[in-house]
Amino acid sequence: MGDEYSATLDILETLAEAAHERHGTDVVALDMSGVPLPMEAFLIVTAENRIQARAMADHLEKNARKAGLTRHHLEGYEEGSWILLDMVDLVIHVFLPETREYYNLEMLWSDVPSMEYDDRREV
User: Fold this and answer.
1) In this predicted model, which residue has the larger pLDDT, 6 or 64?
2) Is residue 62 situated within a structural domain?
3) Rg (CA), the chain
4) pLDDT, tens digit, for every residue of 19-39?
5) Backbone angles phi, psi at 42, to 5 degrees
6) Does 123 reside within a domain?
7) Is 122 part of any domain?
């Protein structure tokens, strides 16, 4: 595992934590480095409603910038059921539950390595 990939893992961990700070659930990272696509990873997270999805996207972008990433492209922010933040090496997907289920990126890319980040449970 090279230094660049280790850095990606650290950033994914940081962003998974940021998603949990905004009560994101079902946080999953997909390792896209072995696929002929320009990004190294997807980070997928579920929000319960459009307001939460936008707040989470804003928070994730802020944390990604702190980690040295720059947003290249943004899609779906106004509509809010699937917000895509293209950070070049990393693409962040914030979904509403029904949209995530419909597109099912984890199944589409089931042949790539993945990492699940346990949801935080308030006790």
Assistant:
1) 64
2) yes
3) 13
4) 999 999 999 999 999 989 888
5) -110, 145
6) no
7) no
What does the pLDDT look like over 91-109, one tens digit per residue?
A: 999 999 999 999 999 999 9
Calculate what percentage of the chain has a pLDDT beyond 90: 80
Number of domains in the chain: 1
Tell me what pLDDT residue 9 has.
86
Helices 3-21/50-66 angle, 10° precision? 140
Q: According to the model, what pLDDT value does residue 38 have?
A: 87
Sheet holding 114-117, edge to edge: 73-75, 82-86, 90-95, 41-46, 25-31, 114-117
CB-based contacts of 52, cutoff 8 Å, min separation 6: 22, 23
**Which CATH number belongs to the domain containing residue 69 in this structure?**
3.30.460.10
Find tokens 């944390």 and name the residue.
Answer: 63
DSSP bridge partners of 117: 27
What is this structure's pTM?
0.90
Which residue range(s) make up the domain with 63? Answer: 3-117
Report yes or no on 77 lying in a domain. Answer: yes
Distance CA 31, CA 43 (A): 9
